[in-house]
From TrEMBL:
Belongs to the short-chain dehydrogenases/reductases (SDR) family. Its main location: secreted. It catalyses: a (3R)-hydroxyacyl-[ACP] + NADP(+) = a 3-oxoacyl-[ACP] + NADPH + H(+). SUPFAM superfamilies: NAD(P)-binding Rossmann-fold domains. The keyword Metal-binding does not apply. The lineage of its organism: Bacteria, Bacillati, Actinomycetota, Actinomycetes, Mycobacteriales. It is found in: Secreted, Cell wall. One of its GO terms (molecular function) is 3-oxoacyl-[acyl-carrier-protein] reductase (NADPH) activity. It comes from Mycolicibacterium smegmatis (strain ATCC 700084 / mc(2)155). Pfam families: adh_short_C2 (PF13561). This is 3-oxoacyl-[acyl-carrier-protein] reductase MabA. Keywords: Cell wall, Oxidoreductase, Secreted.
Length: 262
């Protein structure tokens, strides 16, 4: 299905790999010019070069550390200058500490919430005036399903994700009538480097190997496999498109049924 995105312009954070890169690739396949933001400049450039060569769209690497609150205006302005405007914002950046409660320091709590929650808030604040100009802007926030169902070894990230769900809903009520639609995708476990860290943390607490921790984890899933980042990117691309025009303040939980709440 043609999502009606050709000619749009998108800024994607946390886009050097995983869900962010997969979302950028899928949007580019739909004809969207993309600006990718992450810390690793060399990896970003490789990703952008690959996207541009495969799809023919403009793909711009913007290296920035989003834990630094001073960079957001410059990142958005650079994206707008390079792309000629901004129609779509995908907030995806954010790494989280895994471990038991006693193992996570105050500094880790603050760093995780600063990057994830405040990173989304700051990027949205910088991008919103540009999105409002279009009259049909889209924001898709990616917040893991731990924001809806607590995970005992993912406390800082879960707290940030829960706050992002509330932030997304609240802001959607403010700006929807002005033409900017905001929705959230809540993925569960995805086959990325971050999941490897989770299995390592589980293994330490369960006194087993990471491979055994993964097997134990898979045994408890309603769908007993771990999806790819692209599986999640399909939901993101749909919400960023005109095909989702009447979805606002909505959360799509794309986790294979792990979240048990109705």
């Amino acid at each position: 299905m043609d999502l009606g995105l050709k000619g749009k312009r998108a800024l994607i954070s946390g886009a050097s790999d995983g869900i962010g890169l997969a979302a950028a690739e899928l949007l580019a396949e739909e004809g969207v010019d993309v600006a990718l933001v992450a810390r690793r400049a060399n990896v970003l450039k490789e990703g952008c070069d690959s996207i541009a060569s495969k799809t023919g769209v403009k793909a711009v690497p913007l290296a920035a550390d989003l834990s630094d609150k001073s960079v957001f205006d410059a990142v958005v302005n650079d994206a707008v200058d390079e792309l000629g405007g901004l129609d779509i914002l995908i907030n995806n950046a954010g790494a989280s500490s895994f471990g038991g409660f006693g193992d996570i320091t105050d500094e880790q709590w603050v760093a995780d919430i600063n990057l994830k929650l405040f990173g989304f808030i700051r990027m949205t604040r910088a991008a919103l005036p540009h999105l409002l100009k279009t009259g049909s802007g889209r924001i898709v926030n990616v917040a893991g399903n731990s924001g809806k169902q607590a995970l005992e070894y993912h406390m800082p990230g879960a707290a940030a994700n829960a706050a992002i769900l509330n932030f997304s809903k609240s802001l959607s009520l403010q700006v929807g009538a002005q033409g900017v639609i905001i929705n959230t995708v809540c993925p569960g476990p995805v086959r990325t480097a971050r999941l490897v860290k989770q299995f390592a943390a589980n293994a330490r607490d369960w006194n087993c190997t990471p491979e055994e921790a993964e097997e134990r984890f898979l045994a408890g899933l309603p769908l007993p496999y771990i999806p790819s980042a692209r599986d999640i990117a399909y939901s993101i691309a749909f919400l960023a498109s005109p095909r989702a025009a009447y979805l606002n303040g909505t959360t799509i939980t794309n986790d294979g049924g792990i979240t048990r709440a109705v």
